[in-house]
Structures are given as C-alpha cells and as structure tokens.
Design a protein that fits this description.
A hairpin with a 2-residue loop joins β1 and β2. The chain has a domain of 110 residues: Immunoglobulin-like, CATH 2.60.40. The longest helix is centred in the C-terminal third of the chain and has 20 residues. The strands form seven sheets. The chain has an eight-stranded parallel barrel. The chain has a six-stranded antiparallel sheet with strand order 22-23-24-29-26-27, with helices on one face. It is of the alpha/beta class and 706 residues long.
C-alpha cells in the first residue's frame, strides 16, 4: 500500500519533517501575523524564509535544501500587548518546540529578554526590547532518527509487581565511578558501561529512572550567583536530549549516544523511565523571564494566564504550561510518544503532575482531557506512568486521586516510615509517639486508604523514603538540621528540619555506638521500603550510604556534594540492599497486585497483624499510642503453583521500642519451621538460621522470617 500523505491544505506534523532534500516546516503560532524560518550555515550566517501557509493557528511551508544537521530557529511577528498576554518580538530568535536536538546554550544577558531589563536583568515586562538575541541563544537542529541500529532491542516489559525503581542523575551516577573510563564519566555513554549495568543487576534493580534529560538551561539567578541548574527541572526543549550529558559533541551524536545507552540497559534487562517536566518551562514568568521559544511564538496559548495577561503559577517556577489548550496538550503527547518510539524509553515520571490536569476552574480534574488521552493512547497507555501527585497551587496535594493506569509517588508512605523509625526527638522524650505503628502497618500493606478506588491495587503506590529532593538516606539519620549553605540562599531553601532521634548529634562522629545506631536506622528504613506492598524506589547511592553533608536541596550543586562517591561505598549496606531485594523476589506474597487486607482474598486471608504475644491485634491495641512492636504474617500458601513449591509464609516483625522485646510467633494452622532470613541488627547479611516459637528483637529493629 502507498504511504498516505497529508492533504496540501492541512498542516503537516509540527516541527521539521524531511523528504529527500526538502522539508515540511510547521510551527504553532496562533496569534502571529507572520513567521520566518531562520536557517544558519556553518559560519553562523542567517537566512530568513517566510512561512507562507497558515491554518488552525499553524504556520508551515515546504523548504528546499534542509538536511540532517541543519541549524535553525524562528522569528515571529505579531502584537506586543502584555496586558492581553501577547509578547511577539521578531528581534528574538526562537527555538522550535519540536526540535529533535538543540545546539549551544543561553548566554545570559539583556538581549535574551523580550522586554527591557536593566543590567541585573530586572524589569517590569512592559516595554519591548529591540536588541537581536541570535548571538545569545541556542539553535534548533534537524536530526535523523532512522540511522541508528537498534538491532533486536525490546523493552524488558516488567510487571509492576516485579519492579524496583532506581532514581539517578545521569551525571552524578558515574562522575566518580572508578571503573568507568574518565572520558565518558557523567555521560549517557556511561549509563551503558558494564560496571554500571553490573551494579544495577547485582543489586536487583529492574528500572532506572533518570532525572530530567530533556534539554534544559540554567536559571538567571543561578548564573548570576556562579551556580548551575544540576537537576535539570528547567526544560528548554521537550523533544531534544540534553547535550551536556553526552560525550559526543555533535547533535546527531548526542541523540545516538543516548539511544545506545538505552539499548545497553535493555540488553541487561533494565527498563528506562524519564522524569519529565511538562508543567513549566525555562522561560519563567513573563514579567521577569527570557523569550527563548514558547513565549515568543504564542505566549497566550502555551501558558496559563489571568485576565490581565499575568502568569498563573502553580509550579513555583514562574509559569505553567496550559494543557487546557488542545494543541499544547498535543505537544506534550507528541513528546511522550517521541521518547517511546524514537528512544525506546519504558515510561515517565511526571513532575508536579496536578499542574498538567487543572481545568478551566483551575481545580485538578482526574478526568482531564490529558488523562483521557494517556489512558486511551495505544502507545502511552502501555508504558509506565508515574505521577508526582502534588503541585504548589490551591488544593495541590492529590496523592491517591490519579486515575489508572498511573502509579503515584506515595508521600504518606515516606512520612509514615520516617515518623515510625525516626520520630521527633522532643516527642520521644515526652513519650508521645502517636499512632505511628498503625500508620506504618497501613503503608506496609499497600496504602489501601489511598489507592483502593478504581481497582488500582497496591501497585499504584510508588513507595519511597528518600528521593533526589531531600536528605539522602544516610543524612536522614545523621542530621537534624539541613546544611544548604553552598546553595547561597542563607540556608533558607529546601525542606524544614529532619526527624532524627538517635542521640540528637549532628554530622560525622567517632562514637561507634552512635554510628552503629545510625546504620541500623538506615537498614530499618531501607527494609521497610523494600518489603512493603507496592513499587519500591531507591535513590541512587542510598544503597551504599551516600551523604550530601546535610544538603537537602542540592539542585544547584554539580560537584562532589551531589556526585556518588563510589570509593566510599559501604559494601555491607550494598549486600544488605541486595539481600532484601532477593527476599522480595523470592516471595510473591510480598509483592501482591491486589490488597491483602484482613478480609479474605479469594477465600484466603493473606495478611494478619499480631502483637508480641502472637495474637491478632485488637482494636484497642491498634488505638494504643504506645504500640511500638508488631508483626505481619504474610500467608501466600494459596499462591503455590505446584506441589514442589514451598509454602509462601513470611513474617515481618518491627520493633520500634528502644529496648529488647521478645515476640511470640502466631499460629499458622500447623507446625512451620521458621527461619530467620534477615535482621536489621546484622551489619551484613548472614546465613538464614532456624528459630523456635519466639524471637528476641533488638532495640529499634526489623526482622524477616520464612
């Protein structure tokens, strides 16, 4: 059958589409009066070509001589009326929102602003600036996605119940890895290096979640302060990989290097998920930010504005991308499909996800058109979709309220686990431990209170104790106060004080008892995360005790504060993490697809909670704020597939008390030879050993038996 072509009076796909030496060039600029394509030769000379056709707010044309590697941009003529949201300025060279690659970075100065600013780059946004920005801004680049050899690449396509997510930064993961060649450290190429793949496989990781790799730039205030945006939550292009993470120097090489890394990860059985930032862009607020792309193309369409033309900011970053507009939602959906089809990524984590689904009344809408599109898209509905279920707008906390097939970062899990194992010092001294045990049990069981609707199950809960944003796991147990002085914000940035009751001592110390207590706390936190129902996420480096020196907001630290120090890795903690994940894999009952409550699942009770006497906990005991020791009996005997399978019985016992406690095992309806598989009092995993009918738990400890 012949390949269908678009009708000549209908705009072609947005962006640049190559056809044997010619190209369809198409861009959305609804309120523009004229649009020019700007082509740049190898010497940087600019040639402007007016786009002659317009329909439905899209300008397009067929352009001769465009080939892979072509540098280009747009200039847009139209009204300058900020009070109506229009900020067209043909003096400003604009990036193509659909650019497949971006070359160069922003050279910050007054020229990159569409409005007049002073030497400190401050202005009220009202007066148009006529200086040409071309010498100060990057170029869009045409790339060829058809030349890369994917071979037999395919997604590992894991079940959610098998997934273990490892959140990492491309640069920080390998910048200090001694087994990765120095010339590729901190790059896409390093992600596929055998030493990195071996660590992830040996640990038991199934999915690598990368902090943003969409092309981004640095905020003006960071540049002025001599810092950079390290995390990358400042998107400059939704279709282009960030060139600064590549060993390759040319745009096509950047694209191919990233593809090679993903191919290598897939070959090792590891999925790749991208942390994506569609809620805002690098242009910040219209009255204070630069004009680099969307603002100059069609500010009133791409961004949420009020009746005075001011930004409605529910992201805390100056602007909010307006997915109420169908063509803006299309841009995001096209971008997502681009990363799945062209780069073979396996899923996405959506930063500040409620901002993407706020309706005309600004309220979050679970039935928003963007959600409907994701759920029904034949490509995107089949990949991993993970929501960060909060933004900074009104009623922005929405944990548990996203529709299937989303999973969600479960902040209630994080808070419950930290509260139980690291309660606030003052409250402990007063004996006020609250209802931490009951809350902990709810989270261990999969957070049914949050995710029971729409038949979602515990796999909707992405469990974590730490993430890139906040203390590392080791620092969570070592610091009661944040230490963000290197960020040059007077230590006012980042989250508030940490909960750390162990002796209340800050920073490194030679006191072996204190160090041992902290290491045990790290093991307790890690074990709770990896043994709970749901999908666990590990922050890179937490498995070997990584520290950021108490900095809990290292977003601007592209240095040893943020880079993983592989030479200082705690081998015992690495072995502990691997052992816990081995136990998780070995026992299906620890990773259920459905809630295993006190009520029967298909006629079988898979989860019972018991006290120190081995008896089922009563409502009175659950309501007792002094409850600090309890056990969970996971009974998966109905999951046995053949007579050769072992009975899947698992006990997880937690002791949050500061003294030893002897726990009697519950009745399982017959003699069962319990073995102690793992104990958080162990510095390093030991061989399993038989126990009798009870176990003496060490202070503040967790044990697993089968």
């Amino acid at each position: 059958m012949p390949v269908p072509t678009h009708r000549p009076d209908v705009p072609p796909p947005l962006g640049v589409t190559l056809h044997n030496g010619t190209a369809d060039v198409s861009v959305l600029a609804t309120h523009a009066e004229a649009v020019e394509l700007c082509l740049f030769d190898d010497d940087g000379a600019e040639r402007r070509i007016p786009l002659s056709r317009k329909a439905y707010g899209i300008w397009w044309d067929v352009v001769e001589g465009v080939r892979p590697g072509q540098r280009y941009g747009f200039r847009v003529h139209g009204p300058w009326s900020p009070e109506q949201g229009h900020r067209h300025n043909p003096a400003k060279l604009l990036l193509d929102p659909y650019a497949g690659a971006i070359a160069g970075d922003v050279r910050w100065g007054p020229e990159v602003f569409g409005h007049v600013v002073d030497q400190e780059w401050n202005g009220d946004g009202a007066v148009q600036d006529d200086r040409d920005s071309a010498a100060y801004v990057p170029r869009s680049v045409v790339v060829d996605h058809g030349t890369f050899d994917w071979g037999q690449d395919s997604s590992p396509s894991r079940r959610w119940t098998e997934s273990v997510i490892y959140e990492a930064h491309v640069r920080g993961l390998t910048m200090r890895h001694p087994d990765v060649p120095e010339e590729i450290r901190g790059t896409y190429a390093a992600l596929g290096h055998p030493a990195v793949l071996e660590h992830l496989r040996d640990l038991g990781v199934t999915t690598l979640e990368l902090l943003p790799i969409h092309a981004f730039t640095h905020e003006p205030h960071l540049v002025q302060g001599g810092l950079v945006n390290y995390w990358g939550y400042n998107t400059m292009g939704f279709f282009a990989p960030h060139a600064g993470y590549a060993a390759a120097q040319d745009p096509q090489g950047v694209v191919d290097e990233l593809k090679g890394a993903i191919k290598a990860l897939h070959g090792a059985g590891i999925e790749v998920v991208l942390d994506v930032v569609y809620n805002h862009t690098c242009e910040q607020g219209a009255n204070s930010g630069a004009t680099l792309s969307w603002r100059g193309l069609d500010n009133a369409t791409y961004y949420r504005l009020d009746e005075r033309g001011h930004d409605i900011d529910v992201t805390g970053c100056g602007n909010t991308v307006d997915l109420r507009e169908p063509m803006v939602a299309k841009m995001v959906l096209d971008s997502l499909r681009h990363w799945v089809t062209e780069f073979h990524v396996d899923g996405f984590r959506f930063d500040l996800a409620p901002a993407l689904a706020r309706g005309r009344d600004d309220a979050y809408d679970p039935d928003h058109a963007f959600h409907v599109a994701l759920r029904t898209d034949p490509v995107l509905s089949r990949v991993m979709l993970i929501a960060e279920p909060w933004d900074v707008g009104v009623h922005g906390w929405r944990t548990g309220q996203f529709p299937p097939p989303f999973a969600e970062w479960n902040d209630r899990f994080r808070d419950a686990v930290r509260t139980f194992w690291l309660p606030d010092t003052a409250r402990v001294l007063r004996g006020e431990t609250g209802h931490g045990a009951r809350e902990l049990a709810t989270r261990l069981a999969g957070s049914a209170d949050l995710f029971h609707r729409d038949d979602r199950g515990p796999i909707a809960s992405l469990n974590f104790v730490t993430a890139h944003d906040g203390f590392t796991l080791a620092d969570t147990t070592a610091y009661e106060q944040k230490h963000n002085e290197a960020n040059r914000e007077g230590n006012r940035d980042g989250h508030g004080d940490n909960r750390s009751w162990h002796h209340g001592v800050e920073g490194p110390t030679d006191d072996l008892d204190i160090l041992a207590a902290r290491r045990r706390s790290v093991r307790n936190l890690m074990a709770t995360n990896l043994l709970a129902a749901g999908v666990p996420m590990i922050t890179a480096g937490d498995e070997f005790g990584r520290t950021q020196g108490g900095n809990n907001n290292a977003y601007c630290q592209d240095n040893e504060i943020s880079w993983l120090d592989w030479a200082a890795a705690d081998a015992d903690l690495v072995a502990t993490t691997a052992r816990l994940l081995e136990l998780r894999r070995a026992h299906r009952v620890l990773r259920p697809p459905e809630f295993q409550t006190f009520e029967a699942v298909r006629g079988h009770v898979r989860l019972r909670w018991f006290g120190v006497d081995g008896e089922i906990l009563t409502e009175g005991q659950w309501s007792d704020p002094a409850l600090r020791t309890l056990g969970a009996l996971f009974d998966g005997r109905d999951l046995v597939d053949s007579p050769a399978d072992a009975a899947d019985l698992v006990l997880v016992v937690v002791n949050g008390a500061t003294e030893e406690v002897t726990v009697r095992f519950p009745d399982t309806g017959g003699a069962h030879p319990w073995r102690l598989e793992w104990d958080s009092t162990w510095e390093r995993p030991q061989d399993p050993g038989p126990v009798g009918k009870e176990l003496t738990m060490g202070p503040v400890s967790l044990a697993v038996l089968s």
